[in-house]
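YM 10:42: LysR substrate-binding domain-containing protein sequence, as discussed on the call
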Amino acid sequence: MKLTHEGARLLPLAQEVIEKFDRMPDEISKGPLPIRKIRCGIPPWLPPVLQAKLTGFGESNTEKFKLTQAPLVSADIIDGILHERLDFGFVRPNSQATVLSYTTVWKERIGAVLSREQFASRESIAVAELLALDYIGDRRDSDTEYRRDVETELDKHGQLKRAEFTLGDGARVKQGIAAGEAFNLAPMPSPGEPNTLEYDEFVLVPISDLRFRLLTCLAYRDDTAGRDRGLQDVLDTIILLFRE
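YM 10:58: structure's back
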């Protein structure tokens, strides 16, 4: 039977469909495609609300990928992304790692940890008042990587009086703050989040004239969109999810 012109045009397409159909049993016998693994670096200070969203996102997409979370400090997360041991992670902004992209997904105010007895009734405190107290800070603490940036901002208002003891001297720290002689710094919790202060004698008070905001950034290689569209789609979804 002679094909019409239209039939001749469609014949190759029909043959291709038939060939694909014939190959289906072989493809099915190979089993399901392997689930992609996406590796994420998680710092110890990641806000609980973001941690919960990330975990929920991973659990709701197990058919598409397996999201693994590696607990690391910011420096190790950045190094892991640069050397492709990690696909992305959450860090403080870092101007030195220029081949990474940083997208801010969370901002937090910094408060002063003070004596509950003396400051519980205060709605806020000024930097000038804090500068009259001893300042407690320990740069060895990976949970408080932001300290250098906050201290730089405070120093713009005057000289910080650094305490002679550190966070390792737990009893002296507690005594100094509880007595109203010293203060520490901590992120202000988001609405609905519990207060995580170590002692009942402490209270976290907003600093009225401190403009500093603690940033949480999603970091990834800046060539991701061009070389891995699937990963970029995942990152775009996480950014939207975290900004809700």
